[in-house]
Fold each of these.
Amino acid sequence: MTQPLTPAARMLRRLLLASLALNLFLGGFLLARTQHRPPTPAATLAWPDSETAAMAALRRLAEVLPAQDAAVLREVALRRLPGFLAARTAFLERVATARAAMQQEPLDEARLAAALEAIGADRLPFAELARQVLLEAVPLLSPEGRRTLAAFELRRP
């Protein structure tokens, strides 16, 4: 049979468990801090709160560029922001039309097909605006910035 623990032994056991828990917590905290990379200077530049996918892609491009080149890309992109927002508004209207067509009883397949076709057509202005931004910005970038941009592989977040 085991003997019951004395009050001092119980207190020591509780302190050891608390110490272990605190050490595990602090170890996890420190590990998380060492794995976190601070943002690049370009990533801290102000971008619009309401981003289109194309603007988000341009922002991700700017994050890999040297700070001066990122500022150039941002400035050019922000000049085109009204076009991006207008295209986004039109796109969202088409999505709403497609959703309404999907919910219609009885389902009108021709209306749904037309609404989905319109959504596909509304994606083209985003690509054109992004192309215009790049055509205007790339000549203004440094050789290093152009090399970085050429090597960049765009991945979805």
Amino acid sequence: MAQWIFMISIMLLMACDRRNTKPPAPAPAAAVTHYPAALPPSVINYLQHVYPQWRVVEKSDYSKTWWSFYDTSYNPCWARTDINDDQLADYALWLKKGTQLRLAICTGEANRLFSHTIVIDTSDVFNEAAHNLSMGIAVAPPAQIDVVKPRIQSLILKPNGFALMELEERTRIYHWANESIQTFYMK
């Protein structure tokens, strides 16, 4: 019996001494969605045709306070998702002209064109020289969103939407319902 224990111990020690010379295979990486760093030409051309004097807001238009909340790799000027669940890219973009700002949502159409809705149209709120913009746009993923103020209400967001960010607070969700863009107020 002692011989068997001795032999098994020797075999275990020899097995532990064998080293695998091949490195372990890397674990498969999770699928990462990469969004383009620039707007596609089709969106730019559409906006230039519809709003020839307006241009898309740039990162440099944002206040220093904004960048104290967000990493500079984040782009608050525009966002892309499929808001109406038609498998086509839709865009929410901040546009500027002088002191005016507009938040436009462009929904993609099958013929590679867009239609748009202006959801915010303000004047005299933007000072380009002061770089005082403090509202951004982001993708709002599907979720149930409950708010207490200004009144108790809920939104069940099935496809993605667009969130209006005021510094780090979501104040509105733009979503698709009843064949059009709707606004869910959170403030």
Amino acid sequence: MPSFRLFAAATALACAAFTLAVPQLISNGIVAVESSDSGSSGSDVTSVAGIVNRVVQEVQPITCQLDYITSQNNTQSIVKPLLSDVQAVLSQATYDMKTLCDTTVNWSSSTAYGTWSKADLCKLVGELLCLVLGALGNVLSAVSILEYNLIFPLLAQVGCDLGNLLSLIVKIIGPGQLVPSLLPLIQDVLPTIGNLSIGLKAYACLGVF
């Protein structure tokens, strides 16, 4: 069974690599963030946990860039390509999740968890929510009045896409199997859902909005 601790360590190293690269991107005090090519492959559709694990790995480099957005570079031209990359990854994952549901005749624990445990799946889902919602919250907190009407709808749409994927995961696994263990892991990013006004629309499955 894969070690979540090893996965977390790999994620931390990836973030560290981006952090070290940041000074090279700075020009006149403004970070010149460039869009990444997320390239969702849809290669692992054999289990719910496998799909979520792939999504976490693919969105992490993008959210690292969004975490470095400040009031100085928070413009639609910079933020929109990054958000579009996140949406592409989430869209592929949602498609793969629905495909898994449609093509699986006899559901079993291996279909849901693959080689991961139930606890690992919960941590992976929590990691995904924290990565994406944390990045959205950072961008929202740094948006200017001039850019607000351009950027807010983009953030809300990505938040909804994430919520729709979460709702599908909860439906497959079962709310009683996932939500109680998930909520303590995402307490810090729940306010972002409220700030984007998408709680009832996309996160009703959590039962806290």
